[in-house]
Amino acid sequence: MSVSSSAGVDVPVELRHKILSVDEPLDSRIRALYALKQHHRNEQGAAVLLEAIRTTHSVLFQHEIIYNIGQFGFSSSLPGLVAVLRDKQFDVVSRHEAIEAIGAICSSAPTVTVVLEDTMRDATESAPIRESCELALARIRLAAAHSGDRDALQNRRTHFVSRDPAPALDDADVLAGKPQPPGTYDTQLLKMVMCNPQESLFRRYQAMFALRNRGDSESVAALCSALRDDKTSCLFRHEVAFVLGQLEHSESVEALAEALRDEQEHEMVRHESAEALGAIADPRFWDTLKQYASHPSQLVADSCQVALEMHTYWSQFRPAV
Asked: Are residues 171 and 317 in the same domain?
């Protein structure tokens, strides 16, 4: 028995059971999610993930599920994502991720854009939720300006394949038909844009992803500085930690560990910092991850537990220090 679909390979019943079973350990469910992501990136796989959201109280697992639904990119997922956005019983992190997933799918349908606009203007909503709506709407409008082609927003000069909340700044110039001469956006200029609270959050994200795409030591230093020095937006800082995890650059570990240890930092930033440390797998920070795996914040604790598994796996492929 399996989930039926007219397209793609059916999701095996054993894999479906592991993802949906409330009795399955969290680490096992997350491994099953990764297996589904690798082998069943189709509408039926997305449907299984949508069903899984309400089978767990783990904000980390909800976050991972919803992120991947957005990366799959099927418009059939939108009603379920909008339902998560509207349901304030979900944690801010899960609702943020639903908004970001909506932006990744890039539907300009009024039923989608109206709820994003209403939520963005709702003063009772937290800053991460309102800012997430701002970013999603900007991405949707940019795609609409290019005949709804969301793939036009994909990075052009990088190996990263993620559907990002904003295209890199230099890619955006290409989109607009106004490519700049080489060297127009040097690292210092990108850092200035990224760290300038007078810039729109979308443009700051564009500068951030341009720095990620460069990935050299100077760019990593700029990102690390933003992670620790920014005081404007925990949503922004959480994305900085995410891109540092994508880069897996050894020079970012101290800043990421500081963010994880910082009890004044928002848990969404600490969560991404923990997972980034797991991906980098520097043996000096195993004990840090181990220590925070029993943190009172369940999101921080779960993130460190997953990061320890990531650390164990990726250490096999890292040269000895």
From this structure: yes
Q: What pLDDT is recorded for position 160?
A: 86
CATH number at residue 106: 1.25.10.10
Quote the distance between the C-alpha of residue 24 and its chain's center.
24
* DSSP bridge partners of 12: 2
pLDDT in tens, 75-104: 999 999 999 999 999 999 999 999 999 999
176 and 208 fall within a common domain:
yes
- 23 contact partners, CB below 8 Å, separation of at least 6: none
pLDDT tens, residue by residue, 209-255 = 999 999 999 999 999 999 999 999 999 999 999 999 999 999 999 99
Distance CA 46, CA 33 (A): 11
- Dihedrals φ, ψ of 2, to 5°? -155, 170
Show the tokens assigned to 217.
């030591």
The dihedral region occupied by 60, where left means phi > 0, alpha psi between -120 and 50, and beta the remainder, is alpha
pLDDT, position 179 = 57
Same-domain pairing of 227 and 248: yes
Residues 164 and 194 in one domain: yes
Instruction: Indicate the SS3 state at residue 11.
Output: strand
Q: Are residues 218 and 313 in the same domain?
A: yes
Residue 199: Cβ-neighbour burial (10 angstroms; 0-12, 13-18, 19+): middle
Q: Residue 158 in 3-state DSSP?
A: coil
Helices (H), 122-200: 127-144, 169-175, 187-195
- Residue 123, pLDDT above cutoff 80: yes
Average pLDDT rounded to a whole number, residues 137-147: 88
Domain limit, last residue, from 103, 122, 148: 148
Using pLDDT thresholds of 50, 70 and 90, give the confidence band for residue 180: low
Helix ranges (H only) for 40-126 are 43-52, 59-72, 78-86, 92-105, 110-121
The structure tokens 């096992």 sit at: 28
- CA 132 vs. chain centroid, Å, equals 11
> Which pTM does this prediction carry?
0.91
